[in-house]
Amino acid sequence: MESLTQAIKIVPLNHYILLSAIIFSIGVIGVLIRRNAIVVFMSVELMLNAVNLLLTAFSVYGNDPNGQVFVFFIMALAAAEIAIGLAIIVMVHRNTNSIDVDILNRLKW
Amino acid sequence: MTTLIIIAVLPIVLLYLGLFKANKLLLPVTIIGLLAALGTAIMKWNSYDAPIYHDMMLFDNFSVAFSGITIVSTLLILMLSKGYFEKISHNVAEYFAIILFSLAGIIVMVSYYNLTMLFVGLEIMSVSLYILAGINKKDFASNEASLKYFLMGAFSTGFLLFGIALIYGATHSFNLAAIRDWVTAHPRNMDPLFHTGVVLIIIGLCFKVGAAPFHFWTPDVYEGSPTLITAFMSTVVKTAGFAAFLRLFSVSFISIADFWMPTLMVITVITLFVGNLTALYQHSFKRMLAFSSISHAGYLLFAIVALSAASGNAVFIYATAYSIASIIAFAVLLLVQQQLGSDSFESFNGLGRRNPFLALVLTIAMLSLAGIPLTAGFMGKFFMFYGALSRFQVWLVILAVVNAIISIFYYFRVIIAMYFRSSEQTALEVPGYYQFVLGFSALATLVIGIYPAIVTNLPNLI
Questions:
Q1: What are the C-alpha distances in Å from B239 to residues B3, B103, B233, B317?
Q2: Looking at this predicted complex, what is its ipTM?
Q3: What is the C-alpha R_g of chain B?
Q4: Contact predicate B204/B211, CB 8 Å
Q5: Residue B284, helix vs strand vs coil
Q6: How far apart are CA B166 and CA B150, in angstroms?
Q7: Which CATH number fits domain A2-103: 1.10.3720.10, 3.30.300.180, 1.10.287.3510, 3.90.1010.10?
Q8: Does A60 lie at the interface with B, CB-CB under 8 angstroms?
């Protein structure tokens, strides 16, 4: 365990922050520009994983285990969200034969 | 804590009742369980407990007040469900259980004292709501609402989490009190991690409560979801979102108010105008209520913009007034929809003759939502504006009053349709449960409006 935190500390903290910010931005852009519901969903997961990486890095550098526990919470809830999300996408696919988010435009004023 | 345990165990009991095909028992058991939870919550009033479970949760007066109003609203909404879920499918027990799981998340959200619990509570609530929005599996609008809500909800959770992670990086803690201590120890210090984190948390929470410019999912989701679920989302969920918002900002971020207040003030003004102006152009009563809920989110943000010791009470009074009036509106909408199958303004034509009682309570609800004196809505708006004026935000209040006047136009449209338009429709029957809910809510609206001392004499909640 000690060697693991040493290994994490080889990379400076700023690099972790920058990497997470980049991954997070890729996720946000993916949600905004991709039209396939599954890909949008994957982009959301990318955002959550950027957060996980960031929390782990902060946790190691701050010598505080709380951050890593939070990562477990995020993982558990992301798994719950995947279960619900895929079920919703399957339901939409059954009715429309498509998972393109552009088809979601019938509710307009 | 007992409240939370009761509300978490109750859905499991209901699932067993569903398993043994005891569908007649579902509603009575739910009502008894929720009343027990309400009783245990109220017993905690003024007990001045310290945070429990390693400072994870704090059940203080703030938590008791908001648990109380969310439980009562849920109770009223579930009473309207008599005969409603059976039309969708025979899995009635599951629908009850998911609503109550969502309520358990809400109780966590109004009682958290650690950002971990905020996240967990928010997700328990949201994940349940994604399912509830889509329970009408064959209906395309319901599918669309569910998928949209899910994608937008998960997206906004990402922002909230990134904000929490950055704040953790700066303060090395998720505890609200520890974050507050860190902020007071580092005055006048623009920390790039911490301040970016605060902005991201504002974005995430504004998404959840449906404040402009993060509101675009709200009308579609509210319109597409089954009406009963919309009632739940626009009353209970919105109240809980604001309680969570207020707790975080009043405990942790109050000393850097100069930093986030301008942002929130702009969001408030945009929310008010977007909500009210778009509501003017709606043809569907349900969609109009969705936009009106956006504009009420704007009024509720007032309490956070003018953060003071009285903010908790202001949000409580406003949320109470808004919730009970909205429940009336949605209950009448449910009945009209069942008779005519449409939620346009035209389907309310001649309701004054078709059923005078319904027309009367809906009029009271619309007056309360518009903020006319002698109704609860007026007291809510009064305390919001009073709080803002005491912080010398005169322009904000002037803009809000202009918006309140705009809102009268669309709220009165339905009153005009009910009393001055005629229709050939036959009389509308009101079932017993509906009579109780409508009568109780209308009475509460009037009592709070005429004798506001019941709610205004509460001690400061924060």
A1: 18, 12, 9, 11
A2: 0.94
A3: 21
A4: no
A5: strand
A6: 24
A7: 1.10.287.3510
A8: no
Q: Whole-angstrom Cα distance, residue B177 to residue B168?
A: 13
Which amino acid is residue B252, in one-letter code? Answer: S
For residue B28, cis peptide bond before it (omega within 30 degrees of 0): no
Which amino acid would we find at residue B418? M
Query: What pTM, to 2 d.p., does this model score?
Result: 0.94
pLDDT in tens, B239-273: 999 999 999 999 999 888 888 999 999 999 999 99
Distance from CA of A1 to the nearest CA of B (A): 20
**Lowest-pLDDT choice from B2-11, B47-56, B190-199, B210-219:** B47-56
Beta bridge partners of B175: B114
Distances in Å between the Cα of B257 and the Cα atoms of B35, B201, B235, B265 are 39, 14, 28, 11
For A98, the 3-state DSSP assignment is coil
Place of tokens 């919105």: B238
Tokens of B180: 């507050």
pLDDT at A107: 58
Residue from the list B134, B155, B193 with its beta carbon closest to the beta carbon of A88? B134
* Tally of domains in chain B: 1
* Enclosing domain of residue B398: 2-456
- For chain B, the farthest-separated pair of C-alpha atoms sits apart, in whole angstroms, at 70
Cα B45 from Cα B64, distance rounded (Å) = 6
Domain-located, residue B461? no
CA distance A54 to chain B (A): 7
